[in-house]
Structures
1.
Amino acid sequence: MKQFTGFNKDKILFFHGRTPEFRQLPLRVQWALHRTLKNEKITCLNGEYIINSFFPPLGSGAYREMVKSTIAVYQKKPYPYSAYCAVTNRCGYHCWHCSKTKRAGQELDTLTWQTILGRLQEAGVSLIGLTGGEPLYREDLEDILRVIRKDRAASILFTSGEGLTRERLTSLVAAGLDYVAVSLDHYEPLPHNQMRGHPDAFSTALQAIEACLSAGVYTAVQVMARRELLAKDIMARFVSFVAGLGVPEIRIVEPMPSGELFSGRDDVLLDDRMRLILKKWHVTANQKSSGPKVAAFAYIEDGRQYGCGAGIQHLYIDAFGHLCPCDFTPLSFGHIPSEGFDVSYGRLRAAFARPSRHCFLLSQKESIRDYYKGQLPLSYPDALQICHACPSGPVPDFYRSLGWT
Ligand code: SF4
């Protein structure tokens, strides 16, 4: 595995990222898009070049599909390029920040998920995340994965590591899995085990990471940015620990007012000063040729980058078939098994037609709480009212570079 920064990174982007579709864009737009990647670091693994786990491998069929979605943004007809699917709510852990609680219903069967993944690819989605709960609880995960066509979409598995034995990993890779993101919240066992609510969570995560790395699978560690992590020495120790494991990427997510944190836990949410620390980690780590790259949501979803992807570039389907704008925003735009994919997708697209520089959920959390009647996600009529009352503002820089005003 090799990591590339600076001029070498630019060369790779020039030779592997400028697909025929990309070259259809005006030169000034190509240059602006290139500049949006100025703070990224590229990994070469098994002959593939990977910006980070938010992008399919450069030059792949899935990457070309993603470029088409960027051209659609340029044409003012944006649609989601990434979709995360919670294939189950079952899980053996009890994480303090779990965003999946307060949801209930009937888990979808294999055929329904296969049909949904097929429809997502037809709609242009080029990055499909399989999440949960713990997705490895599904014995049919390989059957679900197999419908993801390599020439259309890349796949990423989000896991605590529970159940990710070498045998299971081999079977998932044979079914087409591209990336794995393993949750790891600390460099010491006890705090991680406490935060995950399981005495073996740390050793399980490390075994899973080891299995992924030895199988040559592109692996990210996903860490929840609780406030304590942001202390300089704690974060530095965490990055150095992950570097020692040989993992190429750290994804940094932040607590969101959803699930366990839906109400009454605003004291754990980050403020702008804290997000600035994360953005600096993203930029600084990705300028160094050694060590893992950092992919911080605080940087990626900032208005100076892509802004909030909810419903416009990203969507989420929960374990019971509700189509939502993102993993954390508990608003349903339709129950796919009973209302159909097209109806639900059409409602979502209509409600999220204009991009935003700010996190939709954080800006609307009080309205969402006002509508809460004991279960999430909120129904479509409630979701629609919340969206209608939401003011539109300036667009993120990514969209500006594609001609939006
Ligand atoms: S609503 Fe917030 S958490 Fe969801 S995609 Fe937008 S920025 Fe991310």
Note: Residues 256, 301, 308-310, 314, 326, 328-329, 359-361 surround iron/sulfur cluster (CB under 6 Å).
2.
Amino acid sequence: MKSRPLFLLILTCAGCLLIQSSTQAQGTSGLSALEKLDPLWSLLLRSVPTKLRDGESLTALGVQQSDGIETLRLQSWYQGLEVLGSQVHLHRTPKGEFTTDHRISFVLSPNPKLPLVEALRLATEDSALRSQLRGVLKILPNFTTQKAKLIYQIRFPETSLWQEWWLDAQTGQILAQIPKHRSLLPINIYDGRTMNPSDIHPDTGAPNRFDLPKLQAMVIEGQATVHADASAYRAQTAIQKIQSYFDSVHHRLPLKPGMQSLHSVVHAGKQWANAYYSRYYDLLAFGDGDQTETRDFTFATDIVGHELTHLISATTPGFYYYNESGALDEGIADVFGILAAGNTQWILGKAIFLYPAQMAHGIRDLASPEKNRDYYRNTDGSYTPMPHPRHLSERFPPDAACTPENDLCYVHGNATIPGHLLFLIAQKWGNARLEKVLYLSMTHFLSPLSDFKDFRRQFLAACEFLTPNNCDIAAWAFDQAGISEGITSKR
Ligand SMILES: [Zn+2]
């Protein structure tokens, strides 16, 4: 799907509807552009301005379409500043229209105590790099505490690994360092054994940098070359299996609209016991395992499914990869990885282990999360193992700053909170119903900063829309996880 001109609807005050056209590609990825103002949308939009607060405006991001539902996403602005993740979704269905609201009320001065130049200085001491930074004043709402902060969103240049920082514009405190979500997709596979050794971390064996044109190609546009080996064939088979799942069950192919190719590197790094989707290089990298406990990660189709689900979630809702929205991204990726791979035990990543004892636990066990551990970072910088939680009261508590050192406030550690409750729902409903409701929640109802509590609301809304009977079972599962209406989780 090519980028087309997008019509921006700008709602600025009660009773006035201003329509502007724009050729900016804002929000076009994964969202079809509004070629014209559809009279039905226009009718629906009339109900929104009356809900605008003083100083608030909304802009249209685009329309998402799936079976039986169309969703128009509107972005909220306050005093001319973007309110991150704060959206209104208008849904149109054969049964009627309704709205879901991802905004909170707050009072905030739009004037920062910290000048931008000072914020950039806090981001880096390197004056050459600083001249390439872009800093924009924005508002960061916290949907759990119902408060908002004025922040600087600072973008690092494309060559930098960490591409976005959030700094408190009053105190200068770093609130988050977030990798940029980028992604693409068909199948090219390269041999990581032809990587330049200087592109591999000397201690961990993790691949740091990829220069695809210099690597040996094993599969090109789905065709194996003479260099293809068992790892390349396994990776290709796993990727095809995941793509056909999303195609047949959710009518979603390619995973991200506009994608031309998906690049993968097998044998990546050196005895590297991991796999990831690199948003920076737009590729899936598979390690060979440490060969002591773990083996080639291409054996785990569910991990491939997990990584490829990030391609979808990076488009809609476009989760910010930190704290609860990041843990939701991880938990939902675990569940779709398991479902797409046909994994019946709900234990992710069993196939990467060499021996039965670890194989039994996998990486994350969504049925019995506490069987596995992750690491909590203490104030002195040391780490303590903690069991994966199934209940909010057992969570890895978020720190003041979410950085790579604390796994962006434990996006993997806390992934089992949503993951386990989705497992509970699947036990009652069956996978077929769960995957439909979850997919609809992800692509139409959740927003970039949805937290666990909002996940409850939006999952139940998707359930009521798609399969209205027995949604109380879903509510019961959220209760089991300690995610109830009206609660405020401990900070
Ligand atoms: Zn992940």
Note: Residues 306, 310, 330, 333 surround zinc ion (CB under 6 Å).
